[in-house]
Amino acid sequence: MSEQMRPEQIQITIDQQSITVAAGSTVAVAIALAGLNCRTSVTGEPRGPLCAMGICFECRATVNGIAHSRTCQLLCEPAMDIRTQ
């Protein structure tokens, strides 16, 4: 693959761990690539994206200090700080 065809890579932080993702990736995808869950339910069940439309709220995490952000609706930005719940 030529250099021109590769998507730009950006650095973000998930749970204090640096990860590189393609520009244009959603935060939910980045969390999945890191092998993590977005949050844990009150009964201890791991949760992640279900609808990918922002309706179900299963993909919530803290993004740049904003709690309960719907990660399936947010695009990754350089130096973004994500905390799974």
Briefly, what CATH class? Alpha Beta
CATH topological fold name: Ubiquitin-like (UB roll)
Mean pLDDT: 93
* SSE run: EEHEEEEE
Number of helices: 1
N- and C-termini, Cα separation: 37 Å
- The whole-angstrom Rg is 13 Å
> Biggest β-sheet, characterized?
5 strands, mixed
- The number of distinct structural domains comes to 1
- The beta-strand count equals 7
CATH architectural designation: Roll
The helix content is under 10%
Shape: globular
The spatial strand order of the largest sheet comes to 2-1-7-5-6
Estimated share of beta-strand residues: 25-35%
The SS-based structural class is: mainly beta
Low-confidence spans: pLDDT under 50, at least 5 residues?
none
How is this structure best described in words?
With 85 residues, the protein is mostly beta strands. It has one domain (9-83): Ubiquitin-like (UB roll) (Roll), CATH 3.10.20.740. It has 1 helix and 7 strands; from the N terminus they run E-E-H-E-E-E-E-E. It is globular, with a radius of gyration of 13 Å. It starts with 8 loop residues before the first strand and ends with a strand.
Set down the secondary structure blueprint.
Elements: E1 9-14, E2 17-22, H1 27-33, E3 39-40, E4 46-47, E5 60-63, E6 66-70, E7 81-83
Parallel strand pairs: 1-7
Antiparallel strand pairs: 1-2, 3-4, 5-6, 5-7
